[in-house]
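Lay summary. Proteins are chains of building blocks that fold into shapes, and those shapes determine what they do. In this project we predict the shape from the chain. Here is one chain we studied, written as its sequence of building blocks.
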Amino acid sequence: MEDNFNNDDFYSMKKDDIIQDTDNNEPIEDFKTPNYNAFSDHNFNNQIFYKKQKEKKRYGAGVVVLASVLAAVIGAFSSLFAISYGYISIVKDNDKAEIITPSSNVNINVDKTVESVVEAVAEKVSSSVVGIRTTTSVMSFFGGSSESTGEGSGVIYSSDGYIVTNYHVIEAVAESTRDSKIEVFLNNNMDKPYEAQIIGYHISSDLAVIKINATGLPKVTIAESDSLKLGQYVIAIGNPGGLEFMGSVTYGVVSGLNRVVSGSGIELIQTDAAINPGNSGGALLNTKGELVGINSSKIVAEGYEGMGFAIPSKTVVEKCDRIINHKDYTEPYVGITISENYTSDILEDLGFPVGAVVLRVADGSTAEEAGIRRGDIITEFNGKKITECTLFNEYLSETKPNTSVSIKLYRSGKYYSGTIKISSDILTK
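And here is the predicted shape, written in a compact code that computers can read:
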């Protein structure tokens, strides 16, 4: 017998890794749930498990002295090795610095003497990173109105005023039905902000394009993110904490590639370069001063440090070019992210029907409105059986925005049927 999946008649737990009743489950002892902070108060509530911290050992004075001597000797040899093999060499001539990276022999020319690659990249690219302030009118409880503001970062995408940022940076304005505005602050002219208009956005990849009425802007140079390697140095430029700290520079390495966090379904670059609230929409750059990603989020939780994430430049170019060049283009969207871990064979081995396992349901999406939950197994969509997890997105792509289709899912021993509205993922103004 099938039920409507909006039915609140809940169910007993089976296979916690697929069907989850988050209201009734108590956290496992010694495990905690971090907050994937996308810098706009979005909490995704995915569990990341880690071991208990070990108690710190105490060492005697003799051990400390010996360790200090060894560290000095190793440091001296390491310095000689680095100088001999020229990992980074800086050539100063006529007040210009030439930064040479041996792997590619690419030079960065700047107009003054610098001491490091990071400084050279900051000198070259800082003017391409902007500050963004959003202002929206909010109704108060007593019927009056007040202003709500938010601040983030953006990157100059083209010299004629197109700027790329995160969707969540401008989300309040995009969804506002009252007075609202977006202001863009250029690095060299903080006193005179430009008012920007929203060109379009892609919700599932957390990207947006805005435009200001200006020309001759210093656009960023974009690299191919597919060429990134683990351990490669990267530099982050943005506005942590807002415009007060505009143009802040941090650096680190590529800690991971193709990371999928918080069930977003987007493959991200992981870095230990410091990324904080306000950095959203800022630039992640290689040592040539080329954009490799747009900074978007970090893990905020006790015991976690240096886990920031950026949207790869390949995704940025694909989505932003589509928004700018195809203003009438739309993509069907329901706000469901499907897990690729549960193939039909695995589901059958676990005793479940084949289908597509829901990894995440986006807040405010039509899937959330329809009552679909994380852990549901979608077995049919738009009248077609889903025999493998990859088929859901294929069937979704065949639908049209502003229509409704049938959906059937399995939830803890019961099948549910209903309809779901198809909205648009890429929206243009």
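What the prediction tells us: DSSP finds seven helices and 25 strands in the chain.
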